[in-house]
Amino acid sequence: MSKIHWLGTGLSAIPGLKMLIEKGYSVVVYNRTVENATKALSGIEGDYQIVPFSFEAIEENTDAGDVVVSMLPGNFHVPVAELSISVGAHFVSSSYISEEMQSLHESSVKKKLCLVNEVGLDPGIDHSMSHALVENYKNSKVFSAENQHSFLSYCGGLSDVPNDFCYKFSWSPLGVLKALMSTSVSIRESQIYTVDKPWESVELYPLPMPWGEDEFEVYPNRDSLPFIEQYQMNEGLKIDQFVRGTLRYKGWKAAWADIFSEVDTLDSQEVEERLKILSDDLWKKYSYKEDEVDRVILTVELKVKKDSEVVWHKQFLLDTLGNAKGSAMAQLVSCSVALAVEAVLNKEIPPGVSAAPHQSELVKRWLNQAEDISDHFALIDHLS
Q: Which letter does DSSP use for residue 374 in this model?
């Protein structure tokens, strides 16, 4: 029986790890501090062992056909994937596919190994929602490549109740701060839209919540353009709008004004040092306390027009709070990773480097689990 090698027991790792153990899989858990991992898995019975993390330990314990799961910081993923290939094991992570990871595609295909990435929340469940919407639309009577297509995808990790900062941190703020300095690329009004300062493109975005319409702030992040092909919208479709971005509480832009001002004026030579100081300060002021609850909102929307008339318009909406099973973020990320591990073991994913699967059966499985985890999960037909 193939084993699962789960690397890291941080904040977003535990629910999915528990899920695999409780399903009866044989799991080796690696963590720098064995004591912390032992505490995190307290009360869980099953076929698992906890060992100190090291590349030597992974290599020694891993057999051909096993699955290695990296819940480590992003800079570990490629070295871990390379090690996995060298011992004949599959690899899974929730992170975006980097150029370095993509370069491993040919070697993994030759060895018939899966290197599956982007199977968390965002990226991950958002991909599943996107695949489902596009497939649903293409199977509809109104599908035509000549229609005008508007695609929007926004995700936000939030506190359950807005505070004066309109945000709380569940891990180091450094990643969020660095993201503010990253250029975003999307499509607006059929043109490529590039933004160097994300906060300058913040806009209000209404969501149809069960209690009525609620407004949030959204802005584009990263490069959205590669996902046009990933979602199979590159087949001659006329695209008026295509945006993948971040969602925040209304008032976030105003609350973060001082942060934006400081980030905008940083000298290139002082960026790393100053961001670290700023990160430490924000962590002290706005990190989650042990008994506080987080919230996740994810929405993916596809609107289609023909001659200026809306002919198809559907939207996924997920809204959930953390609970006794773990934070909302941890459950949605790690349980999706666990599904990917099972799909690899069941040979449902082809060899090579890939993102969240697009096959209808697997998409449905991912979305069903997301619905089970969520307090509110809906597919809204705005024309019905």
A: -
Domain of 63 in residue numbering reads as: 4-116
Strands (DSSP E) found in 58-168: 67-70, 90-93, 114-116, 148-159
The SS3 call for residue 250 is: coil
Q: What is the mean predicted confidence (pLDDT) over 241-259?
A: 96
On whether residue 306 sits in a domain, the answer given is yes
The answer to the question of residue 364 being in a domain is no
Does the residue 279 lie in any domain?
Answer: yes
Please tell me the pTM assigned to this model.
0.95
Of 66, 85, 116, the one marking the end of a domain is 116
The whole-number pLDDT of residue 105 equals: 98
What the block records as the tokens of 165 is: 């900062």
Mean pLDDT of 317-324: 96
Does position 13 have pLDDT exceeding 90, yes or no? yes
Q: Which of 83, 51, 53 is nearest to 66 (CA)?
A: 83
Coil, strand, or helix at residue 127? helix
- Assign 10 a pLDDT band (cuts: 50, 70, 90): confident
Q: Which two tokens stand for residue 144?
A: 């035509």
Written as one string, the DSSP assignment of 15-35 is HHHHHHHHTT--EEEEES-HH
Which phi and psi angles does 198 have, rounded to 5°?
A: -55, -35
Residue 49 pLDDT exceeds 90 = yes
Final residue of a domain: which of 63, 94, 116?
A: 116
156-209 confidence digits (pLDDT tens): 999 998 899 999 998 889 888 888 888 999 999 999 999 999 899 999 999 999
Alpha-carbon span 30 to 8, nearest angstrom: 6
Residue by residue, DSSP assigns 306-354 as ETTEEEEEEEEEEEEE-BTTB-HHHHHHHHHHHHHHHHHHTT-S-SEEE
Q: Which of 21, 59, 69, 60 is nearest to 41 (CA)?
A: 21
Distance CA 329, CA 156 (A): 10
| Distance from C-alpha of 297 to C-alpha of 315, rounded to nearest angstrom | 13
